[in-house]
Amino acid sequence: MSSIPTMPGIRTQMVDTARLSKFVRFSGSPDGEAVIFVHGNNSCATFWEETMLALPSGFHGIAPDLRGYGDTEFKPVDATRGCADFADDIFALADALNIARFHVVGHSLGGSVVWSMLAIAPERLISVTMAAPGSPYGFGGTKDVDGTPCWPDHAGSGGGLVNPEFARREAEQDRSEENPQSAPRVIMNTYYWKPPFRAAREEELLSGLLSIKVRPDHHPGDMVLSENWPGVGPGVLGPNNALSSKYVGDTPDRILSASVKPPVLWIHGTDDQIVSDTSLFEIGTLGKFGVIPGWPGEELFPSQPMKGQTRRFLQRYESAGGRWRELELAECGHTPFLEHPEAFNNALHALLQDQ
After folding, report:
1. Where does the pLDDT of residue 310 fall: very low under 50, low under 70, confident under 90, or very high at 90 and above?
2. Strand partners, 219
3. Span 198-243, pLDDT tens digits
4. Is residue 237 a part of any domain in this protein?
5. Is residue 266 part of a domain?
6. Rounded to an integer, what distance in angstroms lies between the CA atom of residue 104 and that of residue 114?
7. For the chain, what is the domain count?
8. Is residue 1 assigned to a domain?
9. 249: burial class by Cβ within 10 Å (0-12, 13-18, 19+)?
10. Which pLDDT band, with edges at 50, 70 and 90, does 2 fall under?
11. 3-state SS, one letter per residue, for the chain
12. In a domain, 2, yes or no
């Protein structure tokens, strides 16, 4: 049973896989074509419930809580594999459900997981939908559309950059709006979507945000000291380190060289403050604004052009034989499927039904 109330029409089940036991939400007929939804960081699969229920007839919605989130069994994330632990977990879930091929939809961190899935087993993916995904070159520490590292040790990325007060309040399940700079509810309503939008299921979504496991081997994760600004680099445990540019490795090259390239739909908002070319959660932008002292300047450490990196990579994907479509939604923040469900669902359903 879910620790977070679910919407009518959503079924839940703990599914044992070869890697771990995953808590999974389901919608639609099990006989339908599978659509697996992958949630973002500081959230869980409850964020997908409305989107799952809106799927057309003939599709089976499947949304697992990732390891370290929600009600799934806890196991540490080996960040040195990038997002491959998460990706392998999704494939293991599909195996446990006897699903050979499926559509996949990823949001934010979930988009980063999908990049890894495209590198590991693209032949299993019928279509790919990215909702405000992380860059294919990771989060933090790169400076151009080709993902060039700012520093050789990738300082400026990883778990050491997470606001410790925010993590503490997550651990304490703080639902208040006191001291708004670090209040999870305020952070969600300010940055997850564009104000004045407020989600109808705000309490459930806040519970999803607070479901992340706050512990040294997960969130924020570990870090190492660096001689390069801002003085910290990525450790080896947890999702924040898994998103570091240090551990992306050859993922982009593997995607481009794969013989199978499923179609990609990229949907994002014009007003996203988390994944953008001037992200308010990225150290280059914070340094430029004077929030983090000692910024070495635009040449050495500019804002990471996250959207520019994704667009450039998808252009290369097309040149290598793939196809993709971009949908940018006006007056939209980091969660387009909740802020503009009609536009998001129209684009998603067209892709699903076109395959």
Report:
1. very high
2. 214, 215
3. 999 999 999 999 999 999 999 999 999 999 999 999 999 999 999 9
4. yes
5. yes
6. 8
7. 1
8. no
9. middle
10. confident
11. CCCCCCCCCCEEEEEECCCCEEEEEEECCCCCEEEEEECCCCCCHHHHHHHHHCCCCCEEEEEECCCCCCCCCCCCCEHHHCCHHHHHHHHHHHHHCCCCCEEEEEECHHHHHHHHHHHHCHHHEEEEEEECCCCCCCCCCECCCCCCECCCCCCCCCHHHCCHHHHHHHHCCCCCCCCCCCCHHHHHHHHHCCCCCCCCCHHHHHHHHCCCCEECCCECCCEEECCCCCCEEECCECHHHHCCHHHCCCHHHHHHHCCCCCCEEEEEECCCCCCCCCCCCCHHHHHHCCCCCCCCCCCCCCCCCHHHHHHHHHHHHHHCCCCEEEEEECCCCCCHHHHCHHHHHHHHHHHHHCC
12. no
Whether residue 152 is preceded by a cis peptide bond, meaning omega within 30 degrees of 0, is no
Q: Which residues contact 297 (CB under 8 A, 6 or more apart)?
A: none
| Overall size of the chain counted in residues | 355
C-alpha to C-alpha distance for 85 and 237, rounded to whole angstroms: 11
Residue 291: CB atoms within 10 A of its CB come to 11
148 vs 242: CA distance, rounded Å: 18
Handedness of CA 212, 194, 327, 136 (dihedral sign): negative
What domain range includes position 175? 11-353
Residue written as token pair 């520490």 = 141
Q: What tokens appear for 342 in the block?
A: 């009609």
